[in-house]
Amino acid sequence: MNIAVLMKQVPVSNDVSVDPETHALIRSSSEGMINPADLNAIEAALQLKEQTDGKAVVFTMGPQGTQKALIEAMGIGCDESVLITDRCFAGGDTIATAKVLARGIKKYGEFDLILSGALSADGATGQVGAMVAEYMDAPYVGEIQGIKYDETDAEHVVAIKKYQDQEYHIKTELTAVMSVCFGSNEPRFATLRSMRKAKTKPLHVYTNEELQMAAEDIGLSGSPTIVTDSFEPENERRAEMFTGTPQEMAAKLKELIDNEKGKE
Questions:
Q1: Which parts of the sequence belong to the Electron transfer flavoprotein alpha/beta-subunit N-terminal domain (predicted)?
Q2: Any idea where the domains of the chain sit in the sequence?
Q3: Is the pTM of this model over 0.70?
Q4: What pLDDT does residue 128 have?
């Protein structure tokens, strides 16, 4: 089974800059890491790859610096990677992003399954996987916890979803697109040896010269949704530190609660 994994590099912390005009994150201002839920998608892909003697290829759209995350994904076990990068793709919303990713996957070749993380740690829209499925005219199953594959039925796969203490098994034909929930499995980690090997694995780079997408379909021009404003919320909460014996701290806590009630 050949599996494509959509991966996003997200900021390591909340300490990021925002463009005052576009209100988009300036990702070059913060160190990046693989989106946590995407690590679960990579693990699910690697398990299927090992079961079926297939191939796992990781795709991402971003600046040249994103190559570091792709090499890490190959160090974890992915066979190849694809970086889709071009200034004309910058600033795109989820729709424009999904169009570019779908075109990149189609340019690379055919896949039996396409996986993504269910949510990103920065935007948390949960939209890109479903949109890629739409642009690829493929069935989509969102927020899954597992995948079952039976070699006696090579044209289908079963997605496992858990909801309100119930487990659902959803059978779908291939090629399919699925988003994998954060924490649904235990992602493996790269080793020093595997990271050295990763640097020898194929890393393809696609620009719009290769994808040939119209200007009105990509970037800000191809984004029907825009961020009109951004601001840092005011935090009026404060911490009070107590010291003393348990009895003294309990008395101070009661006094603080009484004072707060008196302000209401």
A1: 22-215
A2: 2-217
A3: yes
A4: 92
